[in-house]
Design brief:
Length: 800
């Protein structure tokens, strides 16, 4: 009898697969995620403490409690060791922008940016300008401008470059570029120097044969379709390459909540695996000898996984593809072993597998969104009786995902697509069941000479789809943006959506909506009466400052814009204002029309309503209703005095200044304390201001003119202003060398401390109505994580 019971409990008994491992896997994943919340890498000796604690807990008699805690510690240890290895041998900060020569291979698909080509480069050897070797290897991200030849994945090159450590803009509400670089394993970024003798050493693919195959396929698709709008979409669905999307098309997909459809993920991989599974099972069943050797379901599972693996390889094993492939491996493994998995256990095992493969996946927003979407569907639909109506079930799934991911999307991005559930109700089955098979099938068919027409027709169909998404995305109500609330609102929000998605019989489900209210109603703190909050944003080599009072918000300059489509107005200024709860810019003051000050203005106007616009060069600005800055004008907001000090109308009727010397100068005062902003004003107009105003220039905080250029912030001007702090708005390791050594020494000689946005990130100073001053506070230090580059003497490196 005991033997019969033991046999009945074998592989086909329906015992849940992974039932014992699931809690441990969840604890392990939680440990990995929690490690990346620490501000800096813990000391090496802590790894030994983790090992001892985990081993001790694993031996306790209460495994239901102690073993998950041990698994949590193992997750922390695993992430810490992986991070320590990645952060070892960093690129030296002292060599930022110094001329170097790299030898290595192209490690990605080169992306065509119009005036430049961007690619990853696996460094094998580095030589400095004096010919000496530098012990640095790893992955770097390079831009090759104008003279770039045709680049092939895997080619070995000797490249003259200028590099800088992994570094990005650092602002509240902004995108953490350093986190993304760390997640991708990139140690440095830079450019190929022009005319310095780049040399191709080996045209072969080396270890990047698969990547070269993907590039060849991409080029074949481009040759067949030409410069059609849908070419990047075709390439994304076939080879996983998303680098070719126009910014407008990507924004349209983001606003409609359909960007996940172009990622090679579970839907795409699942469709290919499902087709392969049923096809192989049907064919295998028709072969009696085959079925006797291996059961048809097992053979179909193995074949389907092989098909999924082949497509994942074609897509380049991107992070999203890895997730989908590991989840498929878990599902097919239980089919081969004839186990009956619980859905939650399969999801947790897949989660653990992804983090074991690469713990940095926990830093990817897509990682959390993909697993959260599956978890939401299991939670909302897993315990409900299925409905016969397919559209009812599909509609419920869309509603569940939209509600379930709402707080997560707001936490990660600060906005959510309001129209996403309705759009995806049609777009998901259209893309997954019709367009994706058409694209993949016609793309493979186009490899046969003379059979390119299906691909051309499919691309035209995708053109219409992109046009439709752009039309829908243009509605202003398509996206809802909310400010970043205090930390305590998020647990209530997640609990609220959990109650809303719970089974109907659960008591207290109605509390879901009240628990979501703080997410919508609670606003970030705002200045009180008579208070002034200054934030000098980190916009790279440019200037943008936000001054907030109780009654109004002023933006002084909007940062740069580039030919690539990047603008500080859209990427830095608007996200900061949204995160701060600012819904309107009352005054936009663009000091003058130079691109590093005015480049982001148009993008800011697209994102937020703006009241009055002032500029030192209103005609050159190209903005409707822009008014000239005039010395003597000013206004008062909630007891805070705003005064325009320059330019003055020439009394002799001579021409008004142009260029840098046309910069508006703004002084803002409250409680007897003030801040002075001068744009790019040169030393000659500074001297005029000193003669005209003298002690009236005195200010606690001075934003140095022209980013710290030696043509500004003269000695007499510094003596008149007598600042307690000098703030520089400059880009990290910029090629101008700003702030210049001359200006820094001039400021230091007066005993005045200084901060630089390129080193410190965004800088905040708060002035109280009672004359108190809080700050300056550097955002880079406040938001520090293990991947954050904290510069030591960062301003000096710009002179190298």
């Amino acid at each position: 009898m005991e033997q019969a019971n033991a046999l009945s409990a074998g592989p086909s008994s329906g015992v849940p697969a992974g039932s014992g491992l699931a809690p441990l896997g969840l604890a392990f994943a939680l440990g990995v995620a929690c490690f990346y919340l620490v501000p800096q890498l813990p000391p090496t000796w802590t790894t030994g403490v983790y090992v001892v604690l985990a081993a001790t807990l694993a031996m306790f008699r209460r495994p239901w409690l102690c073993r998950p805690v041990a698994a949590f510690l193992v997750g922390v240890l695993y992430a810490q060791v992986h991070t320590a290895v990645q952060l070892a041998n960093p690129f030296p900060e002292r060599l930022a922008r110094a001329p170097l020569t790299l030898v290595g291979r192209i490690a990605s698909l080169p992306a065509d940016l119009g005036q430049a080509r961007r690619f990853l480069f696996e460094v094998e050897q580095v030589d400095t300008a004096d010919g000496g070797p530098l012990p640095f290897t790893g992955l770097v991200r390079l831009n090759w401008y104008e003279e770039a030849p045709r680049l092939r994945a895997g080619e070995r090159w000797r490249l003259p470059v200028r590099l800088k450590p992994r570094h990005g803009l650092s602002n509240p509400g902004g995108f953490d570029y350093e986190r993304w670089l760390f997640e991708q394993g990139i140690k440095a970024t830079g450019t190929v120097r022009r005319g310095a003798g780049a040399q191709r050493l080996d045209p072969g693919p080396g270890p990047y044969r698969l990547m070269r195959l993907r590039q060849n396929f991409n080029e074949h698709l481009a040759a067949v379709l030409g410069p059609v709008r849908s070419l990047p979409l075709v390439q994304a669905l076939v080879t996983g390459d998303q680098s070719g999307f126009e910014r407008a098309d990507w924004e349209a997909m983001t606003r409609t909540g359909t960007s996940h459809l172009v990622a090679i993920s579970g839907l795409n991989l699942g469709l290919i695996a499902a087709v392969a599974f049923f096809l192989i099972r049907a064919l295998w069943s028709r072969c009696p000898s085959c079925a006797l050797t291996l059961a048809a379901p097992r053979a179909a599972a193995l074949g389907a996984f092989g098909a999924a693996f082949a497509y994942a390889a074609l897509a380049g094993f991107s992070v999203s593809t890895q997730r989908a492939l590991i989840m498929a491996a878990v599902l097919f493994a239980v089919l081969v072993w004839e186990r009956t998995p619980r859905h939650w256990h399969a999801l947790i095992l897949a989660l653990t597998g992804v983090l074991l493969w690469d713990p940095r996946a926990a830093l990817s927003f897509g990682f959390w969104l993909s697993f959260a979407a599956v978890a939401v569907l299991l939670f909302n639909l897993g315990q409900r009786l299925p409905r016969r109506d397919l559209w009812s079930r599909w509609g419920r799934a869309q509603w569940a995902v939209a509600v379930g991911l709402l707080p997560l999307l707001l936490l990660l991005f600060g906005r959510v697509s309001a129209i996403s559930p309705l759009v995806n109700l049609v777009a998901e089955p259209l893309f997954t069941l019709i367009l994706f098979p058409l694209v993949l099938g016609s793309a493979l068919l186009s490899l046969v000479p003379g059979l390119t027409l299906p691909l051309v027709l499919t691309a035209q169909l995708l053109n219409w789809c992109l046009a439709a998404l752009a039309w829908i995305a243009a509605f202003p109500w398509a996206v809802v943006a909310l400010p970043l609330g205090p930390p305590w609102v998020w647990p209530f929000a997640f609990l609220g959506v959990g109650l809303l998605l719970a089974p109907r019989g659960l008591p207290g489900r109605w509390l879901g909506l009240p628990l979501l209210l703080p997410l919508v109603l609670v606003r970030p703190p705002t200045p009180g009466p008579g208070e002034l909050w200054l934030t000098l944003l980190d916009v790279g080599q440019g200037l943008s400052a936000v001054l907030r009072t109780r009654d109004g918000t002023l933006v002084f300059d909007t940062g740069p814009a580039f030919d690539s489509g990047f603008t500080a107005g859209a990427a830095v200024v608007a996200p900061f204002l949204t995160a701060a709860g600012v819904t309107r810019v009352d005054v936009l003051m663009v000091s003058h029309a130079d691109r590093d000050h005015a480049g982001g203005a148009a993008a800011l106007l697209e994102h937020l309503p703006v009241g009055r616009v002032f500029s030192g060069e209103p005609a050159a600005l190209g903005l409707a209703a822009a008014q000239p800055c005039r010395a003597g004008d000013g206004w008062i907001w909630s007891g805070v005095h705003f005064a325009i000090l320059y330019p003055a109308v020439p009394p002799d009727g001579s021409a008004a200044p142009r260029g840098n010397d046309a910069s508006c100068v703004l002084r803002v005062e409250t409680g007897g304390r003030s801040v002075l902003l001068t744009g790019d004003l040169g030393q000659r107009p500074e001297s005029d201001l000193v003669q005209r105003l003298g002690p009236g220039l005195a200010s606690e905080v001075l934003v140095a003119g022209h980013h710290g250029s030696p043509t500004s912030t003269g000695a007499a001007f510094l003596d008149a202003v007598a600042p307690r702090w000098v703030l520089y708005a400059s880009g990290y390791a910029n090629h101008f060398g700003f702030p210049s050594r001359e200006v820094r020494e001039r400021v230091a000689a007066r005993g005045t401390p200084a901060l630089d946005t390129g080193v410190s990130g965004a800088i905040e100073v708060r002035f109280g109505a009672d004359g108190s001053v809080t700050g300056p506070r550097a955002w880079r230090e406040r938001s520090r994580r293990v991947w954050t580059q904290v510069d030591a003497g960062g301003a000096d490196q710009a002179d190298d």
